[in-house]
Each structure stands twice: as structure tokens, then as C-alpha cells.
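sry for the spam today, last one i promise. C-alpha cells for design, 107 residues
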């Protein structure tokens, strides 16, 4: 699925002449990536722990009386760690709370 997506032309990417067809078309994400690497781009890798954190949803909100509401779910007490609720999958199973900017208070 991801490979299909990255091998399809995207309107947000530059156009170029396709060497196979000779027609102008938008680049695929993989072609754009290869073009940047050919121009000297060196990707920076992240540790697995950092990668896990990068893909978490974030919301900046205000804690009121030690309670945090997220996505209409709450209140969440930062000391509880995991939510042990009634099995409602729409609720968050864990909440990571940070002091602004970036300092983790609890997870």
C-alpha cells in the first residue's frame, strides 16, 4: 500500500519529462526522493524510540485541576498512566503529558 502510494505521480511534486513515454508528468515521491539524494541530500536517521514518539498524535491543551481532556475523552489524571475503562476503543489507552516545550511529565 505504501509502495503503491510512493510510486504514483503527485500533483504537489514537480513535473518532468517521463523517459519512458516522453510526456510531461508529475514526479512520484520515490522519484523526488531520488532526485534530492542525487543533489547531495543526506537523510538524518532517528533512534527507534524517537521514531515511535514522532508518530504519536499531539495536542497542546491546558491542564485544569490536574485534569487533561483529549478528543472529548477525559478527564485524564497524569498519575494514572493507562486508562482502564469500559473497553471503549475510541478512548486513548495511554496519555503522555509534557511540559511545554518537550519535557515529559508522565507516560
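last one done:
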Amino acid at each position: 500500500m505504501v509502495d503503491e502510494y510512493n510510486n504514483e505521480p503527485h500533483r504537489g511534486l514537480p513535473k518532468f519529462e517521463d523517459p519512458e513515454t516522453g510526456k510531461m508528468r508529475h514526479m512520484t515521491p520515490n522519484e523526488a526522493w531520488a532526485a534530492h539524494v542525487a543533489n547531495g541530500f543526506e537523510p538524518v536517521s532517528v533512534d527507534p524510540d524517537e521514531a515511535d514518539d514522532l508518530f504519536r498524535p499531539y495536542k497542546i491543551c491546558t491542564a485544569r485541576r490536574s485534569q487533561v481532556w483529549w478528543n472529548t475523552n477525559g478527564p485524564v489524571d497524569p498519575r494514572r498512566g493507562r486508562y482502564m475503562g469500559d473497553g471503549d476503543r475510541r478512548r486513548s489507552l495511554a496519555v503522555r503529558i509534557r511540559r511545554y516545550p518537550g519535557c515529559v511529565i508522565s507516560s
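The first helix runs from residue 2 to 6. ok im logging off now
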